[in-house]
Amino acid sequence: MVGRYLWASAFLSVLTFFSVSAQNDSIQNGEGEIDFSQFAGEAEVSTENLKDGIKRFCTAKITGISPTKLISLGYDFQSGYSLEANENLPTSLIDKIQATHGLRLAANFPVISRNAITINLGLTYMESNYAIKNGGNNPLSYSLNQSALRSTGINLTVFKPINEKHFILINTSHDLNGDYRLNEWQNPKYIKHSVLGVFGWKKHDRRQFGIGVARTYRVGEVNYIPVILYNYTSRNGKWGIESFLPARFHYRRTFSSRSMLFAGFELEGNSYRLKNRDGVFTNNFSNLELRRSELRFRLVYERSIYKFLWISIQAGYRYNYKFNVDEGEFFRGFFGKQEFVMENKLTNPFYTNISLNLVSP
Amino acid sequence: MKRSLFILLSFLFSACSVLSQNSPGDALTGLWLPSCGKARVNIFKKEGKYFGKIVWLREPNNELGKPKMDKNNADESKRSLPLLGYLLLKDFDFKGDNTWEDGTIYDPENGSTYSCTIKMIDSNTLDVRGYIGLSVFGRTDTWTRIVIKK
Predict the structure, then answer these.
(1) What percent of chain B is predicted at pLDDT more than 90?
(2) How many domains does chain A fold into?
């Protein structure tokens, strides 16, 4: 009787040993004792107890694209240039702007990040401090010299894949722009709202294309423009394109997944409320807005300096598109005849920008 | 008396060994397909922890027709390792409530290793969340269990 128990327990132990040993996977990289052919061939999704079905979705990124910045701490510097106010003022005045510089902060939180939908919440803060020789002769220069332009914003991005090939992208931005000071915040009723919607195709893992429309202030004032999304990585992974026209276009040269060089441009702009402190623009104006828009032609080098911490260094040429003053918010479009309160010409300086970034998985 | 104790211990040993093979955490083991569909990952248990290895690649070769290597790894000595057979998931502990934690996931596309938690939504669906430091800075990928057609 005892012998039978002993044999039974010994048999169970041996069986257990072999069942453990039958797991051929090694916890080292490499083949170990695996026969990979057993995992090849046509696969089917096991549907037993499946709650969410077996629908597959395309992802928001393509292979080889530069990493998303979760947190960014940067500094922007434009070298000297001149500002010439036009004939709408009693006199044409030229001021020498010695430098424009300021912090650029951004944070991007993935609120929902699933295969079926991705929602990101972003926070941004940008400032442009103007150092103007002799404090500025015309009212705009004087005003800018007194107080920096600031932009504090919140944005929401929704990426909704429809299936493995198609997706919808929606982004809304809400920015408080003006020459307010941090101890003298601007009324939230002056928040500028931007929105864009894109319908896209992801033909394969290296190409993404989309078309849509945007309500944007990138041209300095509110406008409605078509947008084109195009991201591509070459088959060998060494170069690609990252673009969202007309906002930005970059050719990407990939040295490694942790080191990339970009060449291209970005259209940057917004509408900033000017407080008309001390009635410097005369007391006739109570709702002045600076329409600022500029093209930045640039080279950008980005690389990982420690794990997920990346540095981004850019240098380029800032081309002024618009730096005019309006009274109040209204739609002019590209063909409107409304006159500006003040039209200005800026010469175009070189600029540089450096930032440290925590990048996303 | 001694004989009885020996028999009891033998049974306990056998029973424990068998039970250890069927712990609730073992539900994670098997063949899984990440959402990208580019790879199949075999999750297995070894020495009490769970690991996942790439066992199939949709495109196993690079543009030169040679097997894909881990070319993006920050550690240069590992760049010559083939992706097929690569340990994608490492060192997961089962924490109960259909959750495996304290492991890492490796992304061969950028050569980075992230902290990772795995949540089993149902017996055939996993939420695999890779993150940096805090879980909020992360991304969740849904994996589905697959079986190979015979």
Answers:
(1) 47
(2) 1
Distance separating alpha carbons of residues B42 and B85, to the nearest angstrom: 10
**What pTM value is reported for the model?**
0.81
On whether the CB atoms of residues A254 and A112 are closer than 8 A, the answer is no
Alpha-carbon distance of B52 to B71, in angstroms, equals 20
What is the domain extent for residue A160? 3-359
- A11 pLDDT band, cuts 50/70/90, is very low
pLDDT in tens, B87-118: 999 999 999 999 999 999 999 888 889 999 99
Task: Give chain B's radius of gyration (CA, Å).
Answer: 19
* 3 state SS of B30: strand
**Per-residue pLDDT for B59 more than 70?**
yes
Q: State the Cα–Cα distance between residues A274 and B97, nearest whole angstrom.
A: 56
User: What DSSP letter does each residue of A203-249 carry, written as one string?
Assistant: EETTEEEEEEEEEE-TTSS-EEEEEEEEEEE-TTSSEEEEEEETTEE
Cβ density class A168-187: b for 16+ within 10 Å, e for less: bbebebebbbbbbeeeeebe
DSSP tag of A187: P
Question: How far off is chain A from B139, nearest CA to CA, in Å?
Answer: 5
Encode pLDDT of A59-112 as tens digits.
888 989 999 999 999 999 999 999 988 755 555 678 899 999 999 999 998 888
Please name the residues between 50 and 69 in chain A that touch chain B, using a CB distance below 8 Å. Answer: 50-52, 54, 56-57, 59, 63-64, 67
A–B CB contacts, 8 A cutoff, strictly below: 180
Neighbours of A316 (CB within 10 A): 19
Distance CA B40, CA B22 (A): 23
Cα–Cα distance for residue pair B31/B144, rounded to 1 Å: 9
Are A347 and A81 contacting, i.e. CB atoms less than 8 angstroms apart?
A: yes
The H or E element spanning position B88 is strand B87-94
Contact B130, B137 (CB under 8 A): no
Residues 182-241 of A with CB under 8 A from B: 205, 235-236
pLDDT of the residue at A52: 47
Instruction: Provide the angle, in degrees to the nearest 10, between the axes of the packed helices B2-21 and A2-21.
Output: 30
Q: Per-residue pLDDT for B20 more than 70?
A: no
| Cα–Cα distance list, B100 to A182, B121, B127 (Å) | 46, 12, 10
Q: Which of A105, A112, A123, A107 is nearest to A60 (CA)?
A: A112
